[in-house]
Amino acid sequence: MSLPDSPLQLIGILFLLSILPLIIVMGTSFLKLAVVFSILRNALGIQQVPPNIALYGLALVLSLFIMGPTLLAVKERWHPVQVAGAPFWTSEWDSKALAPYRQFLL
After folding, report:
1. Is the peptide bond before 50 cis (omega within 30 degrees of 0)?
2. Which end of the chain is less congested by CB atoms within 10 angstroms, N or C?
3. 64-79: buried (b, 16+ CB within 10 Å) or exposed (e) per residue?
4. Which pLDDT score, from 0 to 100, does residue 93 have?
5. CA Rg, the chain, in Å?
6. Mind listing the pLDDT tens digit for each residue in 44-98?
7. Which residues of 21-37 are buried (b: 16+ CB within 10 A; e: fewer)?
8. Residue 18 pLDDT > 90
9. Could you give the CA distance from residue 93 to residue 105 in angstroms, rounded to a whole number?
10. Is the Cell membrane keyword given for this protein (predicted)?
């Protein structure tokens, strides 16, 4: 895999890679779980135990467990069909594949 020749393409790729963690955090239940665990820790009156990294790790594992069925449904529907003469992204396979994810976000 080679890098793009145009600086604007490289800037665009780096921008998309930099906002990828934000999309992952906002598009899953990770943020909700992390907030609930922080509130629970403060409600119990303990400030340092467990450490933040342990809470975030637990939130990450639980969010993967919660998102598992949704990701499997997206994977089952992810069958791109190339229509002759049509651009790749104009087909409707992407909206069909992402329908379970949209339902999860509601």
Report:
1. yes
2. N
3. eeebeebeebbeebee
4. 67
5. 19
6. 888 788 888 999 999 989 998 998 888 888 888 877 666 666 665 556 667 777 8
7. eeeeeeebbbeebbeeb
8. yes
9. 19
10. yes
